[in-house]
Amino acid sequence: NLILAIIGYLIGYPLFAKLNIYYAFFNMIPISNLDGNKIFFGNLVLW
Length: 47
What we know:
Elements: H1 2-10, H2 14-27, H3 35-40
Helix pairs in contact: 1-2
């Protein structure tokens, strides 16, 4: 999503870039079954 945000910003779609950045940071919130929960509370051996 961050790569798509950069591409969208470079080709002139600031709203698309902003939405991709919001989505990427929302997924990093450590709640429920989001990726942030798996990263913050995951097992280091599995990484």
